[in-house]
Amino acid sequence: MWLNMATGNSFIFPGLVLSGGIAVFYVIAVLFGAPIFSQFYETMLWSTLMSSLIFIPCLTLLQWTPNEWTETLLFIKSRYTMRQFYCAVNAIAVLTGSWIGAAVLLLDWDTQWKAWPIPCCIGSLLGGVVSLLIVIMRRLFW
Amino acid sequence: MRRTVLLHLSLITLLFLFQALGIVLFLKGYLLTRVVIPQDSPVCFNCSPRYFQSVVWILVDALRHDFVLHNSSLGFKDDRPFYINQMRNIQHFLAHKPRHTKLYRFIADPPTTTMQRLKALTTGTLPTFIDIGSNFNSYQIQEDNIIRQSKRNGLKVTFLGDDTWMSMYPDMFYESYPFPSLNVKDLDTVDKGVYANIIPVLKRNDSDFIIGHFLGVDHCGHTYGPNNHIMRDKLIYIDDVIRSIFELVNNNTIVFVFGDHGMTSTGDHGGQTLLETEAALVVYSKRPLFDAKQDYGQTVYQTDLVPTVSLLLGLPIPFSNLGMIIPELFIPVLEHISPYQSKMHLINSLRTNSQQLHAFIKAQNRFSNDIPHHEVLKLQNEYSILEKMYTSISSTNELSDFKTIENQYINYMAKVREICLSVWTKFDTNKMNAGVIVLILHVILLLTILFFMTKLSFSLILAKVKLLDAVSVITVAFHSVSLFSNSFVVYEGKMVTFLMQSFMAALIVTKFREEVLQLILNHRNLKWNVFIIQLYKNVEPCFKIMVCVHISRYSHVCRDQQDDCTVLEFFSKPDAPFSSGNYLIAISSILQSIFSYLIFVLAIVYVLKLIKSVFQPFVFEKHAQKLIVYSLVVALCGIFSEILSVFMYWIYVAGVIILIFSMVKLSVNQYRKNEAKKNFSITLDSYSWILLLIWISVSFIVKGMNNMLLIPLSISLIQFILLTQILSKMHTISSLSRATLCSLLSYQFFFSFGHQATITSLHFDAAFVGVYGEMTPLKLPIAGLFVTINTLASQVLSALVVPLLLPCQTWLKNGKVVLSTMHQMQLICTLLGTVKLLCSVVAAFALRRHLMVWAVFGPRFMYEAAFQFIFIVTTVSSYLLVLLL
Predict the structure, then answer these.
(1) Interface test mutation site (partner B, options A106, A110, A116, max chain B beta carbons within 10 A)
(2) For this UniProt entry, what is the primary localization, expressed as one broad class (chain B) (predicted)?
């Protein structure tokens, strides 16, 4: 039941989404200030992490239709199921975490871990954790 | 309608004046000032013996300590930096004649600008930051100085070099050979002129005090940076000059070779980093001067030169001097003089110096309350103890007693210097507090006004928090708070582009969301292919802007505190002019300028196309072609600017005048036709045309001498019009987001046009646009204007874009909505600016004891104040322009 097989081949669509996501996030990283080629592996690492953190929950929890995806991720729906809520909150929290992590990159602290993309990765992972907490809270108190 | 306009204008003016009051109050407390005492040291005959018949000053502008110091680890390897171990003659003298030559670290007090340094080197004082603005407009020195003392005591002073000396010391010189100095691209005129004239002067041997000021090293640093083969040639040339002077002088002459400041790794100066403050001082005489047994260290302050030279020439020390003599030079190293006698010489000289300092402190105490009273009493006590010790010393013959009193004198003088240094870096906290409070009140006032305004006419906007508003608020808050952190201020260029990209990403999401909402309302089920097409259609224009933002990053320049910074070679200043004879470099620089002008023309063509698509009835259709032809002509002239620079300039001025004239004619015709209904689309259409013309006029000043800056300029124009295209169609975006966008744009292009928020990175080369030959006083106001425009161009252009970013469609419907939207937008822009200004003011205030206050926070605050001023003035004039059109 976790995977909705109705829309066809269960490998092609996730593969397309994940690799497309990696490409998009690579472009985003470059636009936001990452070097284009000189730190290819680092940038690739970050974009892979972002793509999987955001799209794997969507691929597993949502129906594979454009309506469902856009309505969930763009907060158009008025009523959310638990799964949809988690996907949307997760995406926002991961993006925000990574955004905040980027602020650390400019500081002049003399530490080893203050290098692209470590703070961004940590930020996005923390964002993922926060989104899980939010979902648990909603489950308990709503 | 007229009443609301007048009301709004008076409101804006009042707010502006209130803000200006806050800034002026703060500046009065913040900019350090010093009371100048107009008093000269009395003429005294035989008050000290004359050690040397004549003194020669060789002032090599920007001679850094490590240019002279022999670097044994790098040796003469081919890959060493171009400025290391080039002055081999001086290094030879230092190594082989240690009794005649010595190298000191010559510490300059900030600000390290040439004018301030010259003042310090002749008066022995600590010029404060407030003099910094007068560098282009030098004036006569009022305080007592060594040159005036020389003249009063009948010594003949001969001057050769930089002509700023002539305005600082008019009618003081027995002979003078001034040369024009303001053209930083001219490396040789001053140096060759000084060299050609100094040799005969030295041979004639009729002057007592000779000053030669060589400018080439400084100009080379400004134009090419220190690590350049031109710098190597320059240093070798200076080295040869110095050798020939050393060989020519007689036994009764002492030569001081020194730099007035250093230079950063990019060749600039003005701040207080070690590279800027550590200059070199070489002392040389044919008479033996130094004794290996007597070591007084290798560091000397620049203020110490004045008392040293005064006493060596037997002159009274200038009244306001704060320096201390260089002790070694007052110990005669001669066989027939006993150690007691030579020590006595030194102690007498130290005593003369202390007497002068004592008199100065007493006078200072009378004139102002700068120095706290208890400190003055303490110093006076100490001085009387010293005097007692001095009278008792004649009875003893103990060398150790001599040593003690010598150290006492040195300690006393160091203490005086220290106290004065701490006093003249003291702030007036009351005025600063008042300024901050006024600015806080200003913010509160603006918020209340806006609250009532939005309540009355735009209550819907605040009803629901939207993504773009949230991002705007976060962006502004983050930018403001970041002004408190030196690393964020240092990397502000990167940060602003990052924030801009974040804003654009949020804009994409908002736009896409709107479209999808429409789509879902129309047909329930989306297909994947429809979805992808929709996505592409919405992302594409925003993506273009994001690419523009990305490209604009490449033209950033480095500043001092950025350790890992590399400049893209492609955007940096051309390596060598035609005259250097290196044809490969010359050809590549021509190719560079052809490329940049090509981009310039293409940008104009593209933007005209865009404007046509945004404003459907495009009035200036015919003129568009004229403009393109005209821009081609300008570009062709620009490419050959090496030969035609003056022509180009005048062709371009004529072109702008013709275009404006024809435009006015056209809009008058248009107005007659549509007199009944005023169409705001046409208004904006002609406004965009004006923006284009202003952009072209400004572009030549913004690019300065670096053609490659045309690329970020073209990017700026394209980005402005792309944003117009997107935002004019979106009604749902609030004024807050639009205002945030404007402020981000202004910062983005400030850095993109090759600026940084430091004093040293001002583009002085913009002063030479359209100017041929040397800089004359007549051309100075224009030069100042050009440098100002160059610095603030990004603010001016972004403020001019404000009307174009408003929702254009609503303009057609209702004149009242138009006005209120514009008013609201203007107030929000002012609010955002004031919040940033307040933050930078508080940062400069709170961190005034921070290590980097003059390197980071002080300049940042001054730039912010200038930004605010020009931004408000330009928004108001653009508002008036829209109303008039």
Answers:
(1) A106
(2) endoplasmic reticulum
State the nearest Cα–Cα gap between A126 and chain B, in angstroms. Answer: 20
Residue contact A65–B488, C-beta within 8 A: no
- Tokens 């081949």 locate to A9
Chain segment B804-836, per-residue pLDDT in tens: 888 765 555 556 677 778 888 888 999 999 999
Rounded to the nearest 5°, which phi and psi values hold at B209?
Answer: -140, 115
The model's pTM: 0.73
ipTM computed for the complex: 0.92
Cα B633 to Cα B606: distance, rounded to the nearest angstrom = 17
Cβ of A66 within 8 Å of Cβ of B487? The answer is: no
DSSP, residue by residue, B123-170: H-----GGGGGGGSS-----S--HHHHHHHTT--EEEEEETHHHHHST
Query: Pairing between strand B101-107 and B278-285?
Result: antiparallel
Say what angle helices B735-752 and B858-884 make with each other, to 10 degrees.
120
User: In this structure, which long-range contacts are made by residues B590-599, counting pairs with CB atoms below 8 Å and at least 24 apart in sequence?
Assistant: B590/B639, B592/B707, B592/B708, B593/B638, B593/B639, B593/B641, B593/B707, B594/B639, B596/B707, B596/B708, B596/B709, B596/B710, B596/B711, B597/B635, B597/B636, B597/B638, B597/B639, B597/B707, B597/B710, B598/B635, B599/B710, B599/B711, B599/B714
* Residues whose CB falls within 8 Å of the CB of residue B860, separated by 6 or more in sequence, listed in order: B483, B489, B757, B840, B843, B844
The answer to whether B550 touches A31, Cβ cutoff 8 Å, is yes
Fold of B52-127+142-333: Alkaline Phosphatase, subunit A (3.40.720)
Domain ranges of chain A: 12-141
N- to C-terminal Cα separation, chain A: 25
Cα–Cα distance list, B631 to B611, B620, B625, B650 (Å): 17, 16, 10, 14
> Which amino acid is it at B563?
D
Burial class (CB in 10 A: 0-12, 13-18, 19+), B445: middle
Q: Which chain A residues are Cβ-neighbours of B549 within 8 angstroms? A: 31
For an interface test with B, give the residue of A12, A24, A31 to mutate (most B CBs within 10 A): A31
Altogether, the residues listed in chain A come to a count of 142
Q: How confident is the model at residue A105 (pLDDT cuts 50, 70, 90)?
A: confident
Tokens representing residue B21 in the block: 């009051």
Chain B positions with Cβ closer than 8 Å to A: 478, 485-488, 490-491, 494-495, 497-498, 501-502, 505, 509, 512-513, 516-517, 520, 524-528, 530-531, 546-547, 549-550, 553
Domain range list for chain B: 52-127+142-333, 334-426, 464-555+678-884
Question: How confident is the model over B214-226, as a mean pLDDT?
Answer: 86
Residue A6 near chain B (CB below 8 Å)? no
Q: Are B116 and B267 in contact (CB under 8 A)?
A: no
What digits encode the pLDDT tens for the residues B418-454?
888 877 766 777 888 999 999 999 999 998 888 887 7
Dihedral sign for Cα A92, A95, A97, A99, please: negative
Residues 9-68 in A contacting B (C-alpha not used; CB under 8 Å): 28, 30-33, 65-67
